[in-house]
Amino acid sequence: MMCAPVTRTATVAALLVALVAPVHADRAGLDSSAKTHFELGQTYSSAGRYVEALAEFSAGYELSRKPLFLFNMAECARLAGDPARARINYERYLAEDPQGKLAPTARDRLSQLADGTPPEPPPARQDLHAQPPAPLPPSPPRPFPRLRAAAIAVGALSLVSIIVAAPLYASASADRDALVPTCSARPCGPDDWAEPQARANASYALFAIGGVAAAADIALWIASGVRRPPRPAAASGVGLAIEF
What we know:
It is a single chain. The protein is mainly α. It has helices at residues 4-46, 50-64, 67-79, 83-96, 103-115, 145-185, 190-224. It starts with a helix and ends in a 20-residue tail after the last helix.
């Protein structure tokens, strides 16, 4: 009888875990996808394909909203011969991270663009005829669909378990509370308490299943965002931010 407040607290905690866990897991998946776009942008930039690199950095920024993507977008636009777009992205970077480690470089770039200084040539690259470059992937890798499906199924199991357990526990608690005045008037035997106690025990088991399923759901969502090994970074002479 004295465990009801503790169990109610556990119920609330389990509900919060089940509802919040998929949100945090999905955030991790977005960050993983953003980092993949970052690395592909570095790879395209290393090959001198600044338009494709700009598209990858832009996609990564939409997922993560990290200012370094804006700086790299500006650098790619500048080297691709699009000073207007470069200026916009340098200014956006400075607006979002005015004290960032690349803020002085961004201000220098804006000064050069205002003066009409042509962009610095990219660093010398290998002779493509002497040694063919490694093929670039057409698109970033997608999260494993089977793990995503499993995560959805396990998350649903967690929610269903808790949704079923909550009213089951509430009804058992109400019946046990109703027996208190009855048992005060006459002796009550084990049979009187057996049925509500059985429902309470079933609710405890369902809460436990929901908690374990929520933990497994987090692990599956994180695993579904596994990406390819890091790609080589762009040459430092281009000026890109090389850390995600």
